[in-house]
Amino acid sequence: MFLTPFERMIAKRYLLPGKGEAFIALVAGISVGVVMLSVAMLVVVMSVMNGFRAELLDKIVGLNGHAIVQAYGGRLDNWEDTLRRIKASEGVVSASPLIEQPLLTSFNGRVEGILVRGNTQEDIDALSDKVLQGDMAELQTGASKVAIGVRLAQNIGAGVGDTITIINPQGRSTPFGTVPRQIGYEVAAIFEVGIYDYDQAFVVMPMGDAQTLLLLGDTIGMIEVTTEDADRVEEIMQPIKNDLEGQAVVSDWKTINSTLFEALQVERVAMFFALSFMVLVAAFNILSSLVMLVRAKTRDIAIMRTMGATRRSLLKIFVTTGSTVGIIGTAAGLALGFIILFFREPIVQFIAWSTGQQIWNPEIRFLSTLPSRTDPWEVAGIVALALILSFLATLYPAFKAASTDPVQVLRYE
User: Fold this and answer.
1) Mind listing the pLDDT tens digit for each residue in 358-372?
2) Quick one: which of 278, 260, 258 has its CA closest to 44?
C-alpha cells in the first residue's frame, strides 16, 4: 500500500504519541508486547513439538531400523536366504540380522532387567559415535565383552572394565530342574542413545555371543530393515510382507510406535489451535488501541478533512498505524522465539534450579534433552496469521476514522 509523504508523516506521528497521550502509547505498547509474546510462544512450542517428534523418530529408527521382520516363535530358520530376498527388494537400503531378548543382569548384588541385543559387527561399529566411555571395537565374537547403556551403568554401578553377570532363565534342563545360565561379560563400552528407556536397558553384544547365551544355535530372532524413505515404509515393505506371509510378521516403525506418534500429532494440532487464540487476543488489543486513538484524534481528523484529506488517505493512515504495530510485534516475537530456542537448555536448567523441580524428566519424556526443530513453512504460517489478524483488526477503526464528518465534529468545538 503506497503512502504519500503526508500520510506517512501522520502515520508516524500516531505511532509515536506525544507526552499528553501517554495512555494511548501504553495501550499501543501493550499491543506490541502481546503480539510479540504470542508469536514467540507459537514459534517456541511448535519448534519443540516438531523437534520432539523428529528426534524421537531419528533415535528410534536409527537404532531399530524402519521395519522389523520377526519369525513366529522367535526363531527365524534359514534366515540367510530370507535376508538375501529382503536385501534384493526394491526400496530396501539395508537389512541385517538381529537378536533381541529380555533378560536379567547383576553386579555387586544389584539386579536389573535388560534387553540383550545381538548385532552384527557392522551394526556394532555404527554405535561408535554414541560411546561415552570405552571402545566398541573390543566387542568381538568369543571375547565375552559387551556394551551397556549409560543409565543401566548408573543403576547397577558398573563401569568400563567391570564384569557383569547376565542371567538367562531358560537354561539347560537337569535332573533337578532347569538351571538358569549365568555368564560373566566384561563391560567394554558405555553408550548413550538419548532415549531413556533404551539407555537403561540395552546390552549390546556380538551376534555369535548372543546365540551362545540364548542357546539359539545358528538361528536368529529377527531382521531389521532400513528403507530409502521412512514415510513410504508401508509401501516398500508390502511385497516382503506378502512373500513372508505365514512365516514371519513384518512390523514397521509406524505400527510399532503408532500410539506415541499419533498422540504427538494430536497434541501438536491442539497446541497450535490453543496458542492461536493468543494471536487473536493480540489483534483485539490492536483494535482497542486504534479505537482509542481515533476517539482521541477526532478533532485532528476533522481538521485534516477540511484541509483536503480524502477518506482514502485517512483509511490508509490508520491501517498503516495498526499494521505497523502488528509487524513490529511479529518481528520482535520471531527474534524472541529464536533466542528462547537457542538458550532453551540453560533456561530449562535455570527453571529447574530455581523451582527445585525437574521439569524435563527423561523417564517421562523419553529423551534426555529438550529438542527443537523449526519448520520454515510453519514459521511462515505463524507470521501470516499474526499479520493477517493485525490487518483485519485495523479495518473497523480505520473505516470509523474515514467516515468522520468534519462538520459535525467542528460544530461543537
Assistant:
1) 666 555 555 556 777
2) 278
